[in-house]
């Protein structure tokens, strides 16, 4: 069943640019699965915020959280390297990938229902507290729990295909075997090797070796949103995800 879901997600993403006429292109998605009862979900209330949701909050009887990573095409990643503001291609990719996640989750939910199972989709973004800037459900943390990747110094999830992309997730009552989690770190800095390039890439002083100011980060994202008034909702930056060793690959995979 996991192979069928992997293929369904892969085919949908492959066909999406042609069917929807998107400017953005994506690489082959990565998928991973977490048990809805994994104790790490409860720990998210301590690590992130007491308001962080549990899988069962979205779907009573939840058994599995399906997570996936949508890697951006290299041209999108390269476009965002220069300048203080994010590139138009990066802003478009953010908008179009949000739409892709919503459409993919709807498609996946319908496929599960045809098999006699339920699914609950969660918005790809903007499901966060505007004052705390903390999400009620972190797709990245769900993906971490599922073994899809490990967090880097830039607070992004580093997968086997890097961190330059987006993460989505869906809760289902279909019981699937969880993906195993790696013990080692994927981030060069966390492996004790010289790097810290993401810190130097941060254009608004939000990221340092030992801290992260989410309000400074979001201020830059809002500045980019104002820069592209013709694109719906582009509160994004992404400078710390490009021109770094973990942009499109895992540089320190154990």
How would you characterize the overall build of this protein?
The protein is of the alpha+beta class and 254 residues long. The protein has one domain (2-241). 36% of the residues lie in helices and 13% in strands. The protein contains 8 helices and 8 strands. It has helices spanning 2-20, 39-47, 55-58, 74-79, 88-114, 139-145, 197-201, 214-227; strands spanning 30-35, 64-71, 119-121, 128-129, 134-135, 150-151, 157-158, 165-172. The chain has a 4-stranded antiparallel sheet with strand order 1-2-8-3, with helices on both faces. It has a two-stranded antiparallel ribbon with strand order 4-5. A hairpin with a 5-residue loop joins strand 6 and strand 7. Helix 1 (2-20) packs across helix 5 (88-114). The mean pLDDT is 94.
TL;DR?
The chain is an alpha+beta fold and about 250 residues long. Helix content is about 35%, strand content about 15%.
Describe the secondary-structure layout.
Blueprint: H1 2-20, E1 30-35, H2 39-47, H3 55-58, E2 64-71, H4 74-79, H5 88-114, E3 119-121, E4 128-129, E5 134-135, H6 139-145, E6 150-151, E7 157-158, E8 165-172, H7 197-201, H8 214-227
Antiparallel strand pairs: 1-2, 2-8, 3-8, 4-5, 6-7
Decide which structural class fits the backbone.
alpha+beta
The shape, in one word, is globular
SSE string, helices as H and strands as E:
HEHHEHHEEEHEEEHH
Strand arrangement, largest sheet? 1-2-8-3
Number of DSSP E strands: 8
Largest sheet: 4 strands, antiparallel
Number of individual domains: 1
Tally of helical runs: 8
Quaternary structure: single chain
